[in-house]
Amino acid sequence: MLLKISWRNIWRNPKRSITMVLSIAAGLWGGVFAASIAMGLLNQRFQTGVEQELSHVQMHNPQFLIETNINHHVEDWLQIKEQLNHDQRVKAFTGRTIVNGMIATANLTRGVNILGIDPATEASTTGLDQNTIDGEFFGESTQNPILIGNSLAEKMKARLGTRVVLTFQDTNNELVSISCRVSGIFQTANSMYDEMNIYMLQHDLTEHLGVEGIVNQVALVLHELDQAGDFAAEYGDMFPELTVRTWAEISPQMAFYNQMGMTMFMIILAIILMALAFGLLNTMLMAVFERTRELGMLMCIGMNKKRIFLMIMFETIFLTVTGSLAGTALAVVSVNLFTERGINMAPVGGDSLQNFGFDPVIYPVIDNSFFAMLAILVILTAVLTAIYPALKALRLRPAEAVRTQ
Amino acid sequence: MKTVIKTSNLEKVYNGSVAPVRAVNNVNLEFQEGEFTAIVGPSGSGKTTFLNLIGGLDKPTGGQVIIDGTDIASLKESQLFDFRLKHIGFVFQSYNLIPVLTAKENVSFIMLLQKQSKDAMEKRAKEMLEQVGLSDKLNSRPNQLSGGQQQRVAVARALASKPKFVLADEPTANLDTESAFNLLDIMSRLNKEENITLIFSTHDQRVIERASRVITLVDGEVSKDEMFDR
Hints:
The structure holds two protein chains of two kinds. Chain A is of the alpha+beta class. Chain A has 15 helices and twelve strands. Chain A has helices at residues 2-10, 14-54, 62-66, 77-86, 119-126, 150-156, 191-196, 202-209, 228-238, 247-250, 252-290, 292-300, 305-341, 368-394, 398-401, and strands at 57-60, 90-104, 109-117, 132-135, 145-149, 163-169, 175-186, 197-201, 217-222, 243-246, 343-344, 361-362. Chain B has a single domain, classed as P-loop containing nucleotide triphosphate hydrolases (Rossmann fold, 3-Layer(aba) Sandwich). Chain B has helices spanning 47-54, 77-87, 103-113, 118-131, 147-160, 177-193, 205-210, and strands spanning 3-14, 21-32, 36-40, 62-67, 70-71, 88-91, 165-169, 197-201, 213-218, 221-227. In chain B, a hairpin with a 6-residue loop joins strand 1 (3-14) and strand 2 (21-32). Chain B is globular.
């Protein structure tokens, strides 16, 4: 009956309780939705940055990291390839030949990284083929085909079929210029990356470099991202002449983004919970003050302090849980709705997000563990907030309280 | 007859801003089982304080309140909650029903606190509401009842737990004449038929005329203690 009384008590003043329930619901919904957008942004950035650009682990000749010179290549490439082919943890890998060079059209010349790739292994490792938005991903029809980023194409005024000249140094430090055709245009969520990197077939590049089979960078993805640290350490021991790094070591800012995401979550959560606590405190203090006489009567007839305390606690928890369920339901529905459709920020200037490596179409995501954490923290906040009004109730002197007008 | 309550040299002094206020002063009384007592006196005479002391709602600054062999002044606060629950029924001037519960639930509530079984609660609540003439209002909430009816529910609640005595503080003060007579009829009947000990604090002449004993307090002291054969 204590539960029944507590439940009915919160509906004594329906306007106030409904306002409180709606406030909790709106606060939670807004908070969860904002968190889901932040999480979606960070997930997309991670997806783009790690899965499409960095991969989980990279291997280099340490000298290559100091100076991007074609001669600083991975010495044991064939042995490493053999090892990776037999490693069950590895989902896909690719070896790239990388030189710094210039790309020139009739309009403009720009410095770029020229990545010589094997299309099949590159596609399975980074999904570059999926990012090809125009033309083809290295068809056989063109001589010296290259794939350039959309933003670079716009700046260079290059289109499919445009002839461009690439200039770079070969292994003898001699300048080499080759004529290529744009066979495809790719676009990732990071316009800076698209502007800085162009892809060509590895055998075309190495042929002009004057040496076959040279690889400067090995990039690989694992079945489990969590294994990257152990994997890198193991291969670092196995091939001491190489520098083997995880995505977090290659791009500490990406790891920072992830940590920032959690911090943002916590800040949003703390704001929601603080607002919730103040709202609840106000409501429950009012409820106790309004019912002083009744609480006095309950104490007079022998309802002990433990039960009075529990009754106030139950009322607070009921109020909170009702609001939280409504807010969570709203959040689940809206997050699910936009997880499929995405929120296109481009019309409101969101395309500038691409300059920072973020996709202008945001797909909100929320982890179930977030909801679980939220539920626990909301209940905990309610319980902690209820303590003060409950203690107020317990401090009443029954003989005086029962005569309160 | 069995003594239900005995007070010895009972005293309650409040620390007033100017001088100590002696609200109850050296009161020695015994209340017998089945008595219908009215405590009367002018405002400030100590009626309510005396009722609070024998009801375990306030602690005396001197003397004893012996109920069923226990000096309740020596009990801890938590023990007093249990003591009140088991031994004392309360009826208040402002009815003080729980507004979110029905009449039956209000009466059952005290038995719930006593941890009685659901069946026993149900049976006793119906029986008590029938005794006070409200068998047709079992499922009505307080706001659906008149003042007189609410006070009858309060009487049913006070008696439901089978207390040793019932303390009623000005129970008819908020009632119209008809409701007050109706309530007094019921309480007089229960007093006689069930041998229930009733102690009222009142100004109401209608109550005083029904009581078998009238104690007059003046300045916290017993000035008159009269018995009537009614």
